[in-house]
Design a protein that fits this description.
Number of helices: 6
Mean pLDDT: 94
Largest sheet: 7 strands, mixed
Strand order of the largest sheet: 1-2-3-4-5-6-9
Shape: globular
Structural class: alpha/beta
Distance between the termini: 35 Å
Low-confidence stretches: 1-5
Oligomer: single chain
Number of strands: 15
Strand content: 25-35%
Length: about 260
Amino acid sequence: MSSTTTEPRPHPEALAHGEIKEIFPNIYCVRGTATLKPPVTPLTVMFSRNMTIVREEGDILILINTVRLSEDGLEELDKLGKVKHTIRVGGYHGVDDAFYKEKYGATTWSVEKNYFGGFDKDAEPYMVADNIVTKDTKLPIKDASMYIIESADPKEGLLLLKRTELGVGTVAISGDCLQNFTKSDEHFNMFGRIMMWFSGFLMAHNVGPAWYTSAKAKKEDVKAILDLDFDHVIPCHGEPCHGEATKKYEKSVNALKEQ
């Protein structure tokens, strides 16, 4: 299926972001800014989000949880390699996938077919993914697989990268389901700090509270994540979690209420 734009819209502007940093061999992360604006929230709320970059053989780059970079940031990205693919692991994410598709001709991979604005998943889509990802999809990354939380609406995935040959183990890349905000950072505004603290986001090794409630995921589907036996997590929201990741997330996953 080719991407089609059913309701064209301008690309969101590039917001403040940090430097591209290597987390594991050929796995990079850059922290950027997310915004929620009225009428979604009473006031403009700003907080951080992370884009993960995986470099494959031939200097091919795959962007997960895309964040639009500034011109300087794009220059640094181009030094790493050639952007060929984007992967949308969470249905509420992907706001910058269209930018990278237009600029680099990137092929889009997504757990949900439609891209919609804000949190209204029934809204007219502004883009359709090139490839819809299921648990059986062969992804454009070596030794990668996607666990899908099928009960979530929109769907939510957890991307697993096996890097045992490098002594790294398995790296999980999450959208909204697994977060790790140990504290607010420079990409939060005052309202972001207040809202995230009040809503229970600022907690290490956390299941995204707003995501769990709004997507209505079944606890058993989230709990099954603990059987995947991954070593590290690079979340879209929060700090990377290094080592014994499944063990560190046990408490918050087991504490979830049935819904």
